[in-house]
Amino acid sequence: METFLAVAEEKSFSRAALRLHRTQPAVSQVIGKLEAELGESLFERQTGSLTDAGEVLREYAVKLVNLRDEAGSALKELRSLHRGRLLLAANEYTCLCLLPLIHEYTRRHPNVKVEVQRSLASRIGDDVLANSVELGVLSFQPSDPQLRSVVIFRDELVCVVSPNHSLAKEGMASVKELGRERFVAHNIASPQRQRVFQAFAQHRTKLPIWVELPSLDAIKRFVAMGNGVALSPKLTVASELRMGSLVEVKARELNFERKLRVVYRKQTALSHTARAFLKIAEEYAVQQGDPYYFQAERVSRAGN
Fold this sequence. Notes:
- By secondary structure, the protein is α/β, with parallel strands linked by helices.
- The chain has helices spanning 2-10, 13-20, 24-38, 52-79, 95-108, 121-129, 166-170, 175-178, 191-202, 216-224, 234-243, 272-288; strands spanning 85-90, 113-118, 135-138, 147-161, 172-173, 183-186, 209-213, 230-233, 247-251, 257-265, 292-296.
- Strands 1, 2, 3, 4, 5, 8, 9, 10 and 11 form a nine-stranded mixed sheet that branches.
- The model has no long low-confidence stretch (mean pLDDT 89).
């Protein structure tokens, strides 16, 4: 199209060739191929003026060249993060560790739109593989070999009660003692819950789930009202523990570390926006330290 427009504007193959820094035969060959493809003569060879077909094509050629230039500018802006979108998937819990990272990300790249889609943990890996999102956040290592994972946060599962609960003063309990309590739990099963069941079973103790609720916020509020005991990620109850509306009870035989990781497709090049997010996550871990962390994981055999 550039060659065609140069000939149209110069009304001469030789002048167009000089302008394009090409030989006249090369320009003639390009125009000849274009005419053959379209099945129309585009120039009056004696005058160099456009035919009717050439006039029609010129309108589209100008639009195409301008569109090409716009696309190039848009890609340049994208590379410099002056525009774009960062799309992640997380659940109610894992989203919390993202907030400081998103805060820093939007500070550095205010023109990039950040979208965090709420999704079940069991579906996030599939969402990433299906290209529905570019990055996902999980509390367990995915076993699919098509996914790569990088740990960005280390958390732990803690037992919490209200300040008026009998265990609050002691601050510590055995698994046997916890087995006599009434537990409040999330109504969606997870790999972590299975680990807790197994840990209790190893001590020949049943985990007595009394009430199941649909959100972590509802669980901690219900327990703070004086109802039962909950095992919750420390990240989700940190503010309540600081304010005293919940009290942590150490379980002597239980130690549940939780690693939160970003997962993405192994065989696909990450976008500029996604690479920038991972860079910020790595820098934030260096600056802030524990519990933020940045470590690539090997392929899991059984998940954790």
